[in-house]
Amino acid sequence: MTKEIEELKKIIEESDNIVFFGGAGVSTESGVPDFRSKDGLYNQHDIRFDKYRPEYLLSHSCLVYEPEVYYEFHRQKMDTRNIQPNAAHKYLAKLEERGKLKAIVTQNIDGLHQKAGSKVVYEIHGSALRNYCTKCGKEFPEDYIFTSTEPVPHCECGGTVRPDITLYEESLPDDQVAGAVKALSEADTLIIGGTSLVVYPAASFINYFRGNNLVVINLERLDVSHRGNLLQIQGKIGEVFSQLED
Ligand code: NAD
Q1: pLDDT tens digits, residue range 42-85?
Q2: Which residue ranges have their beta carbon within 6 Å of ligand 1?
Q3: Which residues carry out catalysis?
Q4: Phi, psi for 203 (deg, rounded to 5)
Q5: What is the radius of gyration, based on Cα positions, of the chain?
Q6: What is the pTM of this model?
Q7: Where are the alpha helices (DSSP H) in 15-110?
């Protein structure tokens, strides 16, 4: 066991209000590409989408002005229905079960934390597993957009059915943000993992953390500062957490 892993183990043993703040890197070991890594969605070439900026394909403007493009991209790249949780999701679920971890704040939309058994998960960018009608609000099952034969799926009321995710140009869900901010401000240890911390306002939420231990587990080194104890571990988050298991 390396010194860093030993230190992380000690921090976890001594903490009883841990919050985890994560992003797309948490799910790469499940086979879901992140955005900004070299194999990430932003670096994949696909003739159908190459003429668009990735941010546009994930924006409210694209959904409204070019819905066929938006739904084609969503169907091709956002289908995580058959993906399974990895060691990172499973470890965090166990940490919650042990009463150590109080909440997960995730930017991910894949529902993998809940699939692994985590109960308190604030999805600040929503979830691709939920869909709703933009006109009457009716909810639709997670398969709806993927199995619909219409290029742009509709509800019987005539409204468009869209995924319950926060697109660029849209505001974050109030209830999830409120829960996330409360959990972060009460935590004694914050573990940040698998995120480039460049998507705002999500990344700014870590500033609500007032506790002592800040742990960062990421493939690339992040530029974070902290007035308390800061531990940075560079590596794959699933592999790092696996080394903590007894
Ligand atoms: P990002 O792509 O900007 O950054 C991912 C970060 O994770 C990078 O720093 C990368 O080095 C690191 N990383 C990749 N694999 C890792 C691993 N196995 N262990 C540790 N670190 C790893 O992603 P982001 O910061 O989450 O921001 C982009 C937005 O992407 C978020 O808003 C999120 O909604 C969305 N997104 C979600 C999913 C998903 O739901 N699985 C997938 C792609 C993008």
Answers
A1: 887 777 888 888 889 999 999 999 999 999 999 998 898 889 99
A2: 23-25, 27-29, 32, 34-37, 40, 107-110, 125, 193-196, 198-199, 218-220, 236-237
A3: 125
A4: -60, -25
A5: 19
A6: 0.94
A7: 54-57, 60-65, 67-77, 87-97
